[in-house]
Design brief:
Chain lengths: ~500, ~210, ~200
Amino acid sequence: MEAVSPSPSDAPPLPKPTGGKAVAADRAAGGTAGERYHDRVASWLTAFAMAWSIIGMTAGVYVAAELVWPTIDFGREWLSYGRLRTLHTNAVIFGFGVSALMGTAFYSVQRTCHVPLFAPRLAWFCALAWQAGVLAGGISLLAGWNGGKEYAELEWPFDIAITVVWVCFAIVFFGTIAKRRIKPIYVSNWFYGGLIIVIAMLHLVNSLAIPVTLSKSYSLFAGAQDAIVQWWYGHNAVGFLLTGGFLGMLYYFLPKHAGRPIWSYRLSIVAFWAFTYSYIWAGPHHLHYNAVPEWVQSLGMVMSLVLLAPSWATLVNGVMTVAGAWEKLRTDPALKFIVLSLAFYGLATFEGPMMSIRSVNVVSHFTDWTIGHVHSGALGWNAMITFGAFYFLVPRLMGASLHSVRLANIHFWLALAGTMLYILAMWGAGVSQGLLWLSLDDIGELSFSFKDIMASMAPYYALRLVAGLIFLSGALLMAYNLAMTGKGRRTVAASPPATAAA
Amino acid sequence: MNAVDLHRKLERNSGLLIFGILLVSAIGGLVQVLPSVLQDDLVTPGPGTQPYGPVELIGRDLYIREGCSTCHSQQVRPLLAEVKRYGPYSKAGESAYDRPFLWGSKRTGPDLHRIGGKYTDLWQRMHLLDPRSVVPDSIMPGYPWLAERAADADGSIQARMRALRRLGHPYTEAEIEAAPAALAGLAEVDALVAYLQSLRPPNAEATP
Amino acid sequence: MSDALGLSALPRLVTQPMAVFKALSESAPEGHRVFFQLILPLSLIPPVLAYVGGSAFGWRLGGGEPLMMPAQSLTLISLAYFFAMVFGLVSSAAVSAWMAATYGAQRAFGTHLALAGLVAAPVILASAAHLAPHVFINMLVLIPALIWSLYLLYRGLPEALAIPPERGMLMATALAGYLLVAIVSLLGITVALWSGGIGPAIGV
């Protein structure tokens, strides 16, 4: 089984010729004299990602608290649940998630191609414009600018801005790949590439709308058609941003951490293409028993089940890779996060197809079980793989060892506890809600009023709030730890490995 | 050339890789989404389904602005218990004029697709401004600011209706001209209540 | 030591847990002995307590009157609960034995089975909360017990299977992953059965 080795790009650079003429001559002969990786943009994106994780999770904790104590919005629109929850989802997905993906993509694409970033100034533009967009977008959401479609709430000016920045992201990323020195494109880049291409396709179609004022537009699609388009977009935003993009992170950072190549190259090929093909079809599982054609629902269900295979193929690849590298766990808290993220990845990618089955969905739809599923993926997979990647990345970017391994280990247990509590609370709430809503008594009448079922959710919501606080406290420890690691330092200058110059 | 050789080619050629990803990821959408989008009967208005009048339209846009869909669905499923609890199940034709659709994906609070006429205007108003004044155990947030602003504060109702007309909603010019007058003197909460009261099965008896 | 792995090992699990796991690693208990002396008794505890609590007090789901179920329903539920417990413990041991080669932890099946039982013991004993059949009380008691069980899993597994702690961490995480998948499958299967008509009446 042929394995693809990760690039040995962290080796100290060999002595390079100095002096302009010597550098030019070396370059002309295909050498890498004087070249530097553009890593400072990755450092900044990492910092932004951590900041958004704190902001986004704090908003999440606040809305969780609002479901326990509804008057803590104090009559203010910008604290109102309907707006603040939208801020939460946007901040964690587009602030935290995309910044982490962009930063790790810029870092890893250079090293898997042995070449500095193409158009580094454009990369900076992407990074900074994206932050400005998320910030302004977040404020707009609190002001009530809302397109009304999930994970696409930002109104049309932001949709245009997203398109512009995304095109630049594509140029930088694919431009770097185009000028690569290693001929085969490494698997992590297929996943990052898939992220960029598919999100572009989804965003362009789903955002089609007629603007009315600066803050208001009407979607081109209506009703049942809009539902199908929306969930083609929505499910694949999860699929290619939250799953695929982070798989790119996994396929780069796991072998780097473990010091071993990915267990099976062939499996990664099969997994990638099967994943890219099947995920797209799964959207209609959000629409079971809704007013869309039956064949669309059934197709969505079947393909969601099919999707289990490529998802778990990657899981196997990850588990087998790390199983061979167990000694590193002794000294490396970052690797623990990656290991745990694989377990939750396995759970979430199993639970999703299971919830797509009509007879399960009939109970789970509209309930907190869906929320639990989202967070097992978001906290257990996305957040943890990012934490693992950052604990590895930041010390290397800063040229220093992690400020406190002990704090990182504490963070590990807090993240595990928070995630588990969240999932258990939402399983409890969701399954009971779903079954109680449908429950009939012996004479065939509804057993419970909606209000009574709602009231019985209170302890689960309280437990979820505790879970969120625990998870957030872990993230705060991490932010502190990374800040101290980088304090007073600048991003280390690293170079592509010298090729054999004439 | 076998599959592995084909893949070797793909991984050595970024253009082929990009094209391959685009092609493979487009298939699902072409098969599933395109027919639905081209299929007119999915958005043919059902019997009795009308475009929203100006007051209901502003109300609907307020519903979106305040994020009501994050807690309330508008899609009664064809399940016995749901039909008993809420009313007739929701059909595609009823959403023909819904831009965007508001079927929702979460019920922290109850489904609202058949809420129209079940409570008086006064109850709805009180519930929106302070839910706990009528439902003590409610965890819904209150929206007191809705009573403080005019329904058409930014004067955009005609622009909204014209934009919708371009998308196929059959508004007459007379209706558009008359719209600001319909909203005169109304606060945002009045428009939202009107929208909620309009959420009923098509061809249902209008409440007096 | 192979005959000390019945319910009598449980008190020592509280006071000297690592000693119990170490003793396990030094013995090679036979699978069927562990099954009858540890697994079956443990599996009986939660369903019996659930039956008693349910018939004496009825289940409280939150607001409103407690749900009193006819004896026949309670019996069926308790039976299903019992089989789910047995299946859960045995399958966890089977998965553990299957994974063992990857982590250098190949042992007799009886060892894996005993490990599963010991790790699950805190949660199983905490099912005493089923006597007070209120969902919230059960959550308050079972969740700390679950945390304790997870602690036993992570610390006890490398001890019991005599592997380095790092390999133990990997294997424990993989097992925890299996447990999560198993629990969610149980939720899904239950719900699918109910909506298919096998269970209390729901209006689908």
